[in-house]
Amino acid sequence: MAMQKCGNPFHVQVATKEFMNVLVQLIHNKDLMPEIHKKVLNMIQNWGKKFERDHDILPLFSDVYKAMVKKGIQFPDQS
To answer: How many Å apart are CA 1 and CA 17, to the nearest integer?
Structure first.
């Protein structure tokens, strides 16, 4: 919710290497509940697509998403 309501100063605080690494680690955690796994994948996908046009300011969102797609990570259908 905060990512939708807040502006760039907040986005810059979230788009850190440390935070994005935690999200990626969660994806690979076999003990993670399926609902949380899906939510994390959705966040990465949504942010990757939403902030692609802001790559010069917030590169990690789209870079992490594209890297995961390239590795064959399956994202939930957004239809």
So the answer is: 21
Among 14, 25, 21, smallest CA distance to 50 is for: 14
CA distance 57 to 65: 16
pTM: 0.87
Nearest-angstrom CA–CA distance, 64 and 21: 9
Q: Domain boundaries in the chain? A: 30-73
- Amino acid, single-letter form, for residue 69: V
Mean of the pLDDT values across residues 8-14?
90
CB atoms < 10 A from the CB of 76, how many? Answer: 11
